[in-house]
Design goal:
seven-stranded mixed beta sheet; mainly beta; single chain; eleven-stranded antiparallel beta sheet
């Protein structure tokens, strides 16, 4: 996490309304009973894009949200302030500026406010050339050959991982959260530190999962929670914790307005209150 700061995570939605181009909303308490722990009720946002929200217990204000992305319908894009010659921006502004359908933190970052804590490369731009010895996962996309999967999450326990990440034009390294074998990669905590957490995973069908937990918990417990949910999660990486962790969904179909299965409230904090982050992974619909 950026400087290990722990505050409330903000998860915002933008929905077109009459005479208002864009409004930001927060997803808070009124998650339907069908979306409590152990259930999976996926809401289709678009072909290849769906959302599920899990509540720890009935009436709990804490929710865990999962955006599931089909890489055959949506492509990933790594955007960094250093590469684009910009200042860090909120996830909302990254989406608006670059016409992304959604965005999540790409990684934690160093004190310079730009460089990722792990290896990060996007085509010819190298944000951080050093493979972090403590980090065990790489998210790779933009393959150099058409016979390779569009997206993979490479585990450093895999044989030949170095050659594999070299076959992709975009590589982002982070802490391993869940191993390729479906094992919790984090030891039980030795203290009581708890964070709200953003993560990226992949399921057994090769779909990408953007994950945000609003409940502060240890990373070990967070990984166990993911493994217990009906996500068919195969592996995952931790991308951010504390105030900077977020998931922003920018585009909802017009028919989503007024749905009774989500409760949306206007952001009372205002646009400038959302944290600015230097590196994000966004999604953009593939045009056929």
């Amino acid at each position: 996490m950026a400087y290990c700061r722990t505050h409330w995570i903000r998860m915002a939605f933008m929905i077109p309304l009459p005479r208002i181009a864009v409004l930001a909303f927060f997803l808070f308490l009124a998650v339907p009973e069908a979306l409590q722990a152990g259930d999976a009720d996926w809401i289709a946002l678009d072909e290849g894009l769906s959302l599920a929200v899990f509540r720890e217990t009935p009436g709990s204000p804490y929710v865990l949200s999962v955006l599931r992305i089909d890489p055959a319908r949506y492509e990933l894009e790594l955007l960094s302030a250093a590469e684009r010659g910009r200042n860090p921006m909120s996830l909302r502004d990254w989406c608006g500026t670059f016409q992304l359908a959604a965005a999540i933190n790409a990684s934690m970052y160093l004190e310079d406010g730009r460089k990722s804590t792990g290896y990060m490369r996007n085509f010819d731009h190298v944000n951080n050339p050093r493979v972090n010895a403590s980090f065990g996962a790489f998210l790779v996309f933009h393959p150099e050959r058409p016979d390779l999967p569009a997206v993979q999450m490479v585990d450093r326990e895999q044989e030949g991982w170095e050659g594999l990440i070299g076959r992709y034009r975009t590589v982002v390294q982070n802490y391993r959260l869940i191993t390729l074998g479906g094992r919790n990669a984090w030891s039980p905590p030795s203290d009581d530190r708890k964070f709200q957490t953003a993560a990226i995973g992949m399921d057994a069908d090769g779909r990408i999962l953007f994950i945000l937990s609003r409940e502060p918990r240890s990373v070990h417990d967070f990984a166990n929670r993911l493994l217990a949910l009906p996500l068919a999660i195969r592996n995952a990486m931790y991308v951010e914790g504390g105030q900077d962790a977020g998931l922003f969904i920018a585009r909802f179909p017009p028919e989503m307005r007024g749905r009774e299965d989500l409760s949306l409230f206007e952001d009372r904090l205002g646009k400038d209150a959302t944290p600015s982050v230097p590196n994000v992974i966004g999604i953009r619909k593939i045009l056929r």
